[in-house]
Amino acid sequence: MANIYDGVxxxxxxxxxxxxxxxxxxxxxxxxxxxxEIQFFPNEHFLDQQDKADRERITDxxxxxxxxxxxxxxxxxxxxxxxxxxxxxxxxxxxxIALDEGNVTKETLTVTFPNTAVLHLWVYxxxxxxxxxxxxxxxxxxxxxxxx
Length: 148
What we know:
Strands 1-4-5-8 form a 4-stranded mixed β-sheet. Strands 2-3 form a two-stranded antiparallel ribbon. 17% of the residues are buried. By secondary structure, it is an alpha+beta fold. The chain is globular. Strand 4 and strand 5 (70-78) form a beta hairpin. The longest helix has 16 residues, at 85-100. It contains 3 helices and 10 strands.
């Protein structure tokens, strides 16, 4: 059933591009005018599993808005019961989206994660008010908020 919602969501975003801007403005606090160019990118990503076969992940949407500066966005339309797995999937999607445009210079990988949001179609008692990634490194901790 989720694939039906995902397909409808992708179709709406691709066929009604001008309606994407008000959603982005509301969710992310942007001030786009609606005249910005929007470029959609492929939704299929193959995750390298090292000792396993690559696994395909299909995002709901992955696009860049070209305003004063170009900003990448990833929005997922979620219809299933909250069980914590969406956070893992979002991280996998976001990491792959970042790697797609990553840059390696002198053995340094530089990636930019997209601005990410989840649109919950149904609200349950367990539906979170907020989601985030916390990445702990030897140099410190990075917190990355996901908009809901």
